[in-house]
Every structure is written in C-alpha cells, then in structure tokens.
Amino acid sequence: VSPFKRGATFSETQSETCELADIDWDDLGFAYVPTDYMYSMKCTKGVNFSKGELQRFGNIELSPSAGVLNYGQGLFEGLKAYRKEDGNLLLFRPEENAMRMIMGAERMCMPSPTVEQFVDAVKATVLANKRWVPPPGKGSLYIRPLLMGSGAVLGLAPSPEYTFLIYVSPVGNYFKEGVAPIHLIVEYELHRATPGGTGGVKTIGNYAAVLKAQSAAKARGFSDVLYLDCVQKKYLEEVSSCNIFVVKGNTISTPAIKGTILPGITRKSIIDVARSQGFQVEERLVTVDELLDADEVFCTGTAVVVSPVGSITYKGRRVSYGEEGFGAVSEQLYSVLTKLQMGLIEDKMNWTMEL
Ligand code: COI
User: Fold this and answer.
1) In this structure, what DSSP letter does residue 130 have?
2) CA dist., res. 151 & res. 108, Å (int)
3) Is the ipTM reported for this complex over the cut 0.95?
4) How far apart are CA 314 and CA 233, in angstroms?
5) Is 202 part of the annotated catalytic residue set?
6) Nearest-atom index, ligand 1, CA of 142
7) Is the per-residue pLDDT at 190 higher than 50?
8) Torsion of CA 26, 303, 268, 256, to 10 degrees
9) Calpha distance 217→195 (Å, rounded)
10) Is any atom of ligand 1 closer than 6 Å to the C-beta of 301?
11) Cα angle at 116 between 102 and 107, to 5 degrees?
12) pLDDT given at position 175
C-alpha cells in the first residue's frame, strides 16, 4: 500500500516520508519490487529531449505500432545506488552509463539524452525513491534507464518519437547462488552476437536472443551460459548478463571489446582496480582452452557485481575452480570494488557521486 496521500505533491510526500520502505531487507534477490516514482522524458521532433518529469510509478501507454514493440528499437542501462552509514546515497559512475547509451543510440538510429540530462534524471529518480534504497550492507537500488522508439511505425523505419524512462527497484544478489560460485556451460551452437551486429550495445534484442540457451542451461542445473565467438567458435565472449575474466598466476585476462562484447562498466572498473592492486590485466582474445588450466574464473556486471565461477562445462567436460566461495583474486577485487561503491574506502578514482 502506498504511503503517499492521493493528490499530494512530490515535495510534500518527500518531507513526509524519509524512513525506509516496509519490506524484508534481508530477503532481496533480483526480482522486481514496484517503487514510488519513475522518470519520463520524450523526444518528439529532431534529436533533443524535452524537459522530463517524475511520475508515479505505473504502467505506460504505447501504440501497438510503437517501434520498440514491432522492430526492437530499444536500449537499456543498469546502474546502482547505495546507502551509506550516514544516510547519504552514492551513485557509481553514472556518466559512463549515459555515454554508453549515447553510443548505443547511435547504432540503433535513436536520439539520446545528453550526459547531463541522463545523470540529472537518474539523481531525481533515486531521490524520489529514497526510501527504497536498502540499508547499508543489505543491497542496492538498481536503476534501469530505458530508451525506446515509442512512436508508431508500420514500414521498417526509425520511430518518429522516443521515450526515455527510468524505473528503480531494490535488489540483493543477482544469482540465486548469492555470492556462492556459479556454474556455467559453454554454448557453441547458439550465438549471442555476430561481427557487425549489435552485441556491443545494450539493445534489448541481445537479451531476448539468449533466453533459449539460458533456459536450456538452467533446466540442466547450470546458472548461466558462456558464449563463444560465432566465427571460429573458440574465443570466449561473455555470459548472458555479464563479462568474464580468467585468472592465471598474477595475470587476469578478459576478452577484448571488439563489437560483439558488451563494454561493461564493472568490467572496466575491475580492470582498473586489478591494475591498481598490482595484477597484470590483458584485454585480448581468450580461448576456451585457457579455461582448462585457469586458477580462477569470475564474472562482472552491474547486476552480478563480481561473481566467482565454480565450474565450467564444455562439450561434456567439467572444469572446477572451487565450490567454496570466492577465489583469492576475485575476493580481493570484489572487496575493493564494493567498498568503493558503498563509500567505505577513499574514492581515489573519483567514481562515486554523492546525493
Ligand atoms: C546489468 O548488469 O545491469 C544488466 O544489464 C544485466 C541484466 C541482464 C540484469
């Protein structure tokens, strides 16, 4: 039940409700929890978005002929806000998401909000939903910006109108395993992305395209799928919802960004954190065979943060990396990254934005 009075203005309701939402903060997974407000902004002509506004969270109206519904002209982003012990909120690198949306919009023939519009909209949405940001140590507020062709089209063409929308949901761990190791299966028949395609941008269709392999993997007891390149079928690409890293000694390798792999913001941050901790990081082609003698494997993503991989199965052969929890390297990187995100250590990188 919403605690807000019908007809109350946004500032009235804000001054009335600074406390936390009444939910079980110890039981957050990655399932949608409806919150109070969403943000909406439109571009009806040309390339500029008009001033956006906060609205009560709820369903949206779209023409059945909207470009996003018919031809998949849509992008999304994901970022998080954390609550600090002093009650202030921290965003992690929101400008990076804004810039990634601008790049993706160019590929999908869409106009996009400026970095400033994007970041201002994120801040406004988080503050409006402040009571849904979990207490320190209980999780985060997942922020989901969407950009979609909302205008009606029938013949295949860019949409005549675009909507930028942000909604939020409190979240805990992404995988049901929590922070326990996940189990992956290498998929070598179905592919996530092709050279020249859209694998390197966060378009909605990339995620629909992995559901078949992911569902089949889950039905067999795996946590998710690791994709290979579609040409040689031997180089690692990414997992359905996150990037992959392979550790051997003091060297950490991850597939280089080359158009078929999502340029993850957590991926980029972990590379910098790892280098700052004295590891050698290589962005290059990583073969599936390198999994066989890796010391550790882990995944990174906004939703998954850093997730240790317990085993990988490839063509019937299973390689285990330890079932207990994090490996030493992923634990170290997870610890530094999450302390930075939660404001528990000094942010020398200047990555966080306090609200
Ligand atoms: C994220 O990590 O934010 C993503 O966009 C992945 C999504 C499938 C949850």
Assistant:
1) G
2) 15
3) yes
4) 12
5) yes
6) 3
7) yes
8) 140
9) 25
10) yes
11) 5
12) 78
